[in-house]
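C-alpha cells in:
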C-alpha cells in the first residue's frame, strides 16, 4: 500500500533540495547572529581583560586577550584610589527612586489611560506621548533654571523627584500591556465592590509582572548609566554617582586604565545579572506591549 504522506509524495531529489536549502538558511542565520553577537560582546571582553592587566601588559602590541599574569589588585585598588563605595550607594539610592517611579507611578498612570473610561482620555495620552519627541537638550536649560530657583542644585532631588512623577515611555509600556488583560476581570472586581485603586493593586499588578519587570530593568539601567543628570546637578564629589565617579580615574597626568576598567566592570555586572535573571519577563513584557493599541 502506497504512503500518502506529503513527504513521500514529493520526489526524492526535490525533497533533498528543500532540506538542503533549509539547512543553509539556518546556518546563515546562526552565522549572522554569531557575528553580530561578537561585535557587541567584544568591548565587554576587552574591558574585563584590561581590568586584569598590569600597566606593562596594556602597552604590549599586539594586545593579548588573556592576561598573563592576572592582576586582581585593580579591583581592590579602586576603593583606595576613590570612594567607590560611596558612589555605589549614591547610585543605588537614585536607582531605587527610578524603579519605584517606573513600577508604581507609571503603572498607575498606565492603568488610568488604558482601563478607565473618561472623556478626552486618548487626547491627553497623545499629548503625553508627544513629549517623547522633544529632545532633552531643548528642556535642559529651563529645567535647570527651575531646579535652581527651588535650590535643588547639588542635591539628589533633581535626580529622584522627576522619576516619581512618572515617565511617558514607561506609562506607554504599562498602558499597552494592561490593554491585553480582559475587561471581564476588572468588571468582576468592580461588581464585588472593589474600587479602581483596589482593582489596580489586587488584579492588574499581579497580572502585569512581565511589564513591571521590563520597566524596572529599563529604569535601573537608565539610573545607573545616567551621566548628564549628575554632571549638571551634582557639584560635590561626595554626591557623585558611579557614572560620574568614573571620571576620577582620569587625571591630567594620565588615565588609570586598569582601575577604570575594573570599576566599569563592577558597574555593569549588576545590570547583566539582573537581565539574565529577569530576561523571560523582560522579553514577554516587550512582546505583549504591542498586541493592542
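Residues out:
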Amino acid at each position: 500500500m502506497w504512503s500518502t504522506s506529503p513527504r513521500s509524495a514529493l520526489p526524492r531529489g526535490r525533497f533533498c533540495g528543500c532540506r538542503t536549502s533549509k539547512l543553509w538558511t539556518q546556518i546563515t542565520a546562526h552565522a549572522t547572529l554569531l557575528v553580530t553577537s561578537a561585535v557587541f560582546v567584544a568591548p565587554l571582553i576587552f574591558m574585563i581583560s584590561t581590568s586584569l592587566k598590569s600597566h606593562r601588559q596594556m602597552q604590549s602590541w599586539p594586545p593579548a586577550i588573556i592576561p598573563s599574569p592576572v592582576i586582581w589588585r585593580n579591583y581592590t585598588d579602586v576603593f583606595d584610589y576613590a570612594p567607590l563605595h560611596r558612589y555605589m550607594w549614591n547610585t543605588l539610592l537614585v536607582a531605587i527612586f527610578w524603579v519605584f517611579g517606573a513600577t508604581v507611578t507609571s503603572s498607575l498612570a498606565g492603568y488610568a489611560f488604558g482601563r478607565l473610561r473618561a472623556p478626552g482620555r486618548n487626547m491627553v495620552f497623545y499629548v503625553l506621548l508627544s513629549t517623547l519627541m522633544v529632545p532633552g537638550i531643548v528642556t535642559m536649560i529651563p529645567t535647570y533654571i527651575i531646579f535652581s530657583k527651588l535650590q535643588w542644585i547639588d542635591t539628589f532631588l533633581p535626580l529622584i523627584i522627576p522619576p516619581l512623577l512618572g515617565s511617558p515611555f514607561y506609562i506607554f509600556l504599562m498602558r499597552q500591556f494592561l490593554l491585553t488583560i480582559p475587561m471581564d476581570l476588572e468588571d468582576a472586581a468592580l461588581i464585588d465592590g472593589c474600587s479602581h485603586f483596589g482593582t489596580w493593586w489586587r488584579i492588574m499588578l499581579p497580572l502585569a509582572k512581565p511589564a513591571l519587570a521590563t520597566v524596572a530593568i529599563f529604569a535601573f539601567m537608565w539610573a545607573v548609566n545616567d551621566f548628564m543628570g549628575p554632571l549638571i546637578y551634582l557639584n560635590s564629589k561626595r554626591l557623585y554617582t558611579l557614572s560620574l565617579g568614573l571620571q576620577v580615574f582620569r587625571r591630567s597626568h594620565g588615565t588609570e586604565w586598569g582601575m577604570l576598567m575594573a570599576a566599569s566592570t563592577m558597574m555593569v555586572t549588576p545590570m547583566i545579572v539582573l537581565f539574565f535573571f529577569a530576561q523571560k519577563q523582560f522579553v514577554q513584557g516587550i512582546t505583549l506591549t504591542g498586541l493592542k493599541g
